[in-house]
Each structure stands twice: as structure tokens, then as C-alpha cells.
């Protein structure tokens, strides 16, 4: 959906603006005709059920978590429930476990997304250019993404367990890589990359499909090398797709849970923020502190999304003069 | 949105389809969970961890019930954390399909405080209390009331190689010295026990604190106390971890790692639960004749050790639709006959004292005298609803044991334990 909304082809953009009346144009508009009004009303009516369901399943839990985060509320002590304002936020934000988990999460997010972008781009180019057995190449490239994360994480765990695992025996014959912090984090990141690079490649391939062949041919007529065609033609045209891919993966990676849960269960300071929220909420039964963490994770994700969307604003080709810049 | 903008007709079809889909999705759960209480014999769901031979015990009770109820065994996962999480999630949602809960001894206070399990009163209470060992019984109480029926218990023993050690060490100091002597002589010397950052490390700490006459938490379970006994325990723990008598992977070992290492002949001493005995007989028959047991080492030569009680209790869920029958079923499931059966077939030490003197126990449980001796003077883990939090922070603070600085660690523990009890702190 987001991909189509940022489709760079000029015709589509103006078409969309004409019909929907995007914000900047609204002021100068003449009043809508009767037919248009009816159509819009119908549109709203048709949207309403979906919108209501969205509100019910997203807005309500978010608001409820926020409400819980303002209370001392531990299921173990039901009688001691009380409103404490922002006290839980002070507790969490001054806690070293939280910040350690936060740093671990940021590290995993940044490293895995950067590596995935590079690998995903390569994979997308291969899938895009393959002529023979295209379906087979694409299918096999997507297999890791099709495997349930927990299942994949278990195979990684066994592979890295001394004694039973071929990787552990091969790489560190006398160590237990999952019990040391640095190596455990590396394995978590590796599992993440293995798992989601195909997803990245898929999104990037959609972007590659937008690059007109004529443009590439023209560039090569003008003597542009392969690298120049890639950086000066393909990347700028693909930029919106790249940003969408980055946004999706960053948000996803920031919420990393299953891989860590299976691989280390957070031992040796490898907890992510989602892990630590789970530990406080589900294991610790502390709804107040746990909800506070959930709200903080939500805010962080919202900020990341906001930054990316701000980037989009200037990234749509044709909308500004930086379209040609990389 | 963008799709709708460009293709209005298709978009409205999609919106309609979405609305219909959403409506179906919302209705589905309503139709799916109707009432399930079929007429006739009431079903009692027992949620318990896997126990060998448990189904036979249940069958016995179902036969004895004579058609008044049928107990169905809902087997929980093996890992304690997974068991607890599954139960608390259901209880928080007031699931009325749970009737009898198999609780680890450390969860009983928590579930009672959360008002999830029912109090045992009147004759039922008397029946449970009669003949039950005091240590296990205390683990089933909260604020002077009984909330569960002790089902089985557990204490760690000192297992040692009599071909290497003639006289079992009475204290930790003696044990460390004996191991060092063996080391000098170039013999097998290691003292094997659980040192990974988990509940097992907390049990070790609790053994030492209780043996030193100390306390971690005040009697009412509401205040963290760090007395001289605690500091003494920390000293012993630090000395043990740094004396050069432990396994190199001490800080990474849990029960089964320790058992396997000892079975493979890596250690002269092992501090572990009695289940290692039967495993040793079947898995390492050539080593088994050389292994014997003694009471867990003490700290002071004149004061016997006090060790942590493990085991499980059975409680009746507050949301059960068949409370009276559930209480009755628990009384059957944990009666002397069934406890004996499980002791012999699953290796679970009984909580009813009389069972120990049963002649059949001698063969399956040759170490029953030592177990009973330890049980009579055992140390419960801090009886507080916040035990789970407390255990998490204690394990994190004590790990690795070699880095303990008794004074400082005690202060750090006091702070984090108090926060855990008040549920104000953050769990790692």
C-alpha cells in the first residue's frame, strides 16, 4: 500500500491528488458538487467499519497501556493498586537494565538493517535480472522468510550448541558461543539477517521494477559505467522503495523478540527492550512497569517512523530538486 | 488509501470485503467458545508439570471417586518458567477450565496473594496438616493460612566418592580443604554444583544463608534484611568459587550438567537433588558403588546445615466451577499411598512423614534417612509473593560468584531485594 502511495510516476501522483484532494491543495478548491459530496459520504460510510475495527484493536490497547503505565499495578498485590503518575517512567528511565536492553536493541537494529540492505539489494538485483528459472530463484531466495522465526531460531540454537551443533564445532571447538555476550549478540544478528534479508530483497525488487529500461539504456549510451548507472540512475529512482524497505525493517528489528527468546532468553545481557518488557509484564506480573516499557517502546517506534516519514516528504522524485542527489 | 484513490470502484469493493471480513473475525470467537460443561460427571482439569506415573495415580483416584468426578491430566511444559507463565496468563484471564494447579513451592504465596487459589479450611485443612512434614507445610502457607496441599518435597544432599574420600566433610571449609588435598595429590578433586545465573544459584545462596543462621527477608516477607549470617554466607560462597575446586564451567552449570559431569567421573563431590541417585545406577553402573551420600555441608562445625526445600504443592483455582470436588480430588492425589507410588516410580520425596518408614521405600530410597533428617530442619526459600522477582535479582547480583565482595554485595542485594518485594524495581 505504501509503495503505491509513493509511486513516482508523475501521472499517478497528479491523478491521486486530483481525486483525494491532498492537504496542501485543499484551500484553493471550489466547493464540491452534490455528486462529489455524496460520493465522499459513501466513501466514509464504507470506510467506517474498517476504521472502527482499527480503533478498537489499536487505539484502545495503546490508551489502556498508557493508563496502566500510570499506576502501581502488580497482579501479585491486587490490593495495592494505585495511581502513581509518572513514577513508573522515572523508575524505568533511571534503570540500568532498561538502558542496557535499549543499547542492545539499537545495536541489533542498526547492524542487521544495514547488512540486510546491502545483501537485500544484491539479492534483488539477482532476482530481477535472472532470466533462466526465475520462479525457482525467487522462491528459493524467499524460503528463509517463509520459515517460522521460532523454528529457525531453534535450528540456529542447536547449530551453535557445543556438542550437538555443527557450527559450534566448526567455528569454536571449545567455546560455548551462546553463553558469551559478544558472540551471542553476533549470532542473534546473524539469525535476524538470514531471516529477513529476503523480505528486504522483495521490497527492493518492487523498487527495481520501477526503473525504466530506457533510462538505463540512455545512460549506457552516454557512456555511464555499471556502477554509475546503479548509483546515478537506479538508486535515485528506487529511493522511495528503499526508504519504505528501511522503515519496515527498522520498525521490525527494533521489536526483536523471538530470536533472542529462543537463542539466549536474554542471558548475559542480551535482552532487547521487548524481552525486558515481556519479563516484567508476563513473568513479573507487574502491569505498571511492564506497560511503561511498552509505551516507551511504542514512542520510540513512533519517533523512528516519524523520522522516516519526514525523509519521505523530500524523497519523492519530481517533488523537489534533490531527486537527482543520492 | 492510495489504491482506493486510484481505483475507486475496486476500492469500495475492497472496503466492503474488509468490513465483512472484520465482522466475521469479531463474531468467530463468540461462536467458538460456548459452554463446555457437559451434563453428567464433572471433569476436573489438573494442570501440572510432567510426572512419570502420574496418570496411574489419577486413574486410582478416578476409580475411587466412583463416578463423582473425572480428573483429566493437562500436562504443562517441562521448564518451570513456562509452567508458571501458562498458569498465570490463564488465571489473570479468570479461566474457569482450570481446577487443580500443580505449583512449585515458591509460587504458592504469589498465587495466594494474587487471590487466584482457594484457602483450605476446616476438616480439609486438618487432614492436610496431619502428618505432613513442617518444612513442606510452611511452603503451602501464606499469612498463617493454608492455600495448598504439599504434594512432594525435595532437598539437596552431598554426594561423594568414597574411593577418594574416606570421611564426608562436615563443613564447607572441610570440603574445600579435602578437594584441595586431592588436587595436590593429582586425583579427581572437583566439587560440582549449580552456579549458573538462575534459580539454582539462589538455592545455593539460600542453603548457605540458612546454614549460617542468617535471613534474607524478614519473617513477614515484607522487608529485606542482610544480617551477619548473610554476609558470612557470601564469604563462603566467594571462597568456594575462587578456591580452585570448582569446575571451569561452574558459572554455566544447571542440575543436569552437574549430574552428567559427576557421572562422567569429573568430580569428587556433588551437591545436588536426590534424583541423581537413580540416574547414576542406570547410567554409570561402574561408578555407582563408589558413590555415597551425606548431609549437606554446614558452615559452622557445631551447627548442622539447613537446606532449601524444593518440591510442589497442589492448589484449587479460585475460578474452578467444581471447588468442593477439586479439594476432594487433591486429597486423593496426594494421599500416602499415591505419594509412596510416586516416590518409588518418579523419585519424588514424599511430604507425609509416615511414608518414609514404609518398608518398600528402603530399596528405592536408601538415602531416605538423610533426606528426612534434612527435611526436619529445612530452610524454606523466602516466603513472599514476590519470590519470582526476588530470585531473578538475587541470581543477577550473585553471578558470577567469584566476583562477590561480601560487604558490598550484601548492600546491593538488600537494595534490589527490597525493590523486588515492593515490586518497584525493574526485572532484567
Question: How is this structure best described in words?
Answer:
- The complex is a heterodimer of chains A (326) and B (428).
- Chain A is mainly α.
- Chain A has one domain (96-324): Orthogonal Bundle (MetI-like fold).
- Chain A is 73% helix and 1% strand.
- Chain A contains 15 helices and 2 strands.
- Chain A has helices spanning 2-5, 10-20, 23-26, 34-69, 87-93, 96-129, 134-146, 149-159, 166-171, 181-208, 213-221, 226-254, 258-263, 273-283, 287-315; strands spanning 71-72, 82-83.
- In chain A, helix 6 (96-129) runs parallel beside helix 10 (181-208), helix 6 packs antiparallel against helix 12 and helix 14 (273-283) packs antiparallel against helix 15.
- Mean pLDDT of chain A is 84; it is low at 1-26 and 316-326.
- Chain B is of the alpha/beta class and 428 residues long.
- Chain B folds into 3 domains: 2-32; 43-154 and 310-376, Periplasmic binding protein-like II (D-Maltodextrin-Binding Protein, domain 2), CATH 3.40.190.10; 157-308 and 386-421, D-Maltodextrin-Binding Protein, domain 2.
- Chain B has 18 helices and 11 strands.
- In chain B, helix 9 (199-211) crosses helix 17, helix 10 (228-242) packs across helix 18 and helix 17 (387-398) runs antiparallel to helix 18.
- The chains are: A mainly alpha (326), B alpha/beta (428).
- Chain A binds chain B through residues 1-2, 4-5, 7, 12, 15-16, 19-20, 39, 42-43, 46-47, 49-50, 53, 72, 74-78, 91-92, 95, 97-98, 176, 179, 266-267, 271, 276, 279-280, 282-286, 289, and chain B through 1-6, 8, 12, 15-16, 18-19, 22-23, 26, 81, 84-85, 88-89, 92, 110, 113-115, 197, 252, 385-386, 388-389, 392, 423-428.
